Amino acid sequence: MTAPIALTMGDPAGIGMELALSAWRLRAAPFFLLADPQAVSRVDRGLGLATPIETTTPERAAEAFAHALPVVPLEARVDAAPGRPDPANAPAILESIERAVGYARQGAARAIVTNPIAKKTLYDAGFRHPGHTEYLGELAKAWGGPATPVMMIWSQLLAVVPVTIHIPLSAVPGALTRGLIEATARIVDRDLRARFKLARPRIAVAGLNPHAGEGGAMGREEIEIIAPAVETLREEGLEIFGPLPADTMFHARARARYDVALTMYHDQGLIPAKTLAFDEGVNVTLGLPFVRTSPDHGTAFDIAGRGLADPTSLISALDLAARLSA
Predict the structure, then answer these.
(1) Predicted confidence band of residue 187 (pLDDT cuts 50, 70, 90)
(2) Check whether domain 150-287 has CATH 3.30.420.40, yes or no
(3) Region 143-166: what's the mean pLDDT?
């Protein structure tokens, strides 16, 4: 029997556990939830769902999934109220992620899907990584060999990869280098070939400045950094072009020319991605020795526990993880 997907708990004050309950009821790709079973039951009772929940092991989770939501219990306890994040739950949040990576390494999980976390909650508890993606990269190093996580937001309409991610906008020009663009594009090209089965991925590269710098009149990053990186990659055999003005890259005719867009900073890529496919978008981490996807939204503390959370993105993340790990 094929191993199921390991689904992390996320922040227990957010919508992660109720999304997991909905995903099981709507028959997403088989998974087990790494969580405190009592906390899952409290969420289920609060929503009035009466979902069958079974405490199990990863090895027996696929069998349990047919008749109950399989929950692999954490050692850390969870005491959370909907919408009220608490740093005291950080050990359980991190244990859920660490255990998922461990099960993927052992082959007990075919892929990892992570529910949303609140970085500030973890920072308040001493967490030292910029975010989920970087933390997974650190955990992946235990597998041996390099692990360079690259965030891609994917949907049927658009896939984008921001070259710089969780840094202030003012820091982007200083962080942008030829080497970073080249390394990111190589990982994107490799994983789109290996996991998405694209024989020759087409990569479009955005400029940093308005009008892609307007020939240097609005900035020289395109001339001095981005265009030379694109040329190096083209010489290596990648099908890549740019830099392009970002304001004309994302309409339907432009998107038909490429499989993925490399953008220079977070919002440059995520605004069009979330505008086009907010509910269906999936966060995919490339560059890791395992498949990892995540819903393309946050913890939604404001609606947690009210039965309003839309499970579409989590179901898309589970289905895509199953496809990429097939």
Answers:
(1) very high
(2) no
(3) 89
Q: Are 296 and 151 in contact (CB under 8 A)?
A: no
Which residues, including other chains, have CB under 8 Å from residue 289's CB and lie 6 or more apart?
140, 143, 145, 147
Residue 215 gets which letter from DSSP?
A: G
- Is 1-147+290-326 a domain of CATH 3.30.200.20? no
Determine how many CB atoms are found less than 10 A away from the CB of residue 211: 16
Q: Taking a C-beta distance cutoff of 8 angstroms, is the pair 121, 87 a contact?
A: yes
Q: 23-70: per-residue pLDDT in tens?
A: 999 999 999 999 999 999 999 999 999 999 999 999 999 999 999 999
Collect all residues with Cβ–Cβ distance below 8 Å to 167 and sequence separation of at least 6: 130, 175, 266
pLDDT confidence of residue 42: 96
Domain layout of the chain by residue ranges: 1-147+290-326, 150-287
Dihedrals φ, ψ of 156, to 5°? -65, -25
- Describe the crossing of helices 16-25 and 37-47 by its angle, rounded to 10 degrees: 70
pLDDT tens digits for 278-311?
Answer: 888 899 999 999 999 999 889 999 999 999 999 9
Instruction: Tally DSSP H helices, then E strands, for the chain.
Output: 13, 12
Q: Can you tell me the distance from the alpha carbon of 235 to that of 230, in angstroms, rounded to the nearest whole number?
A: 9
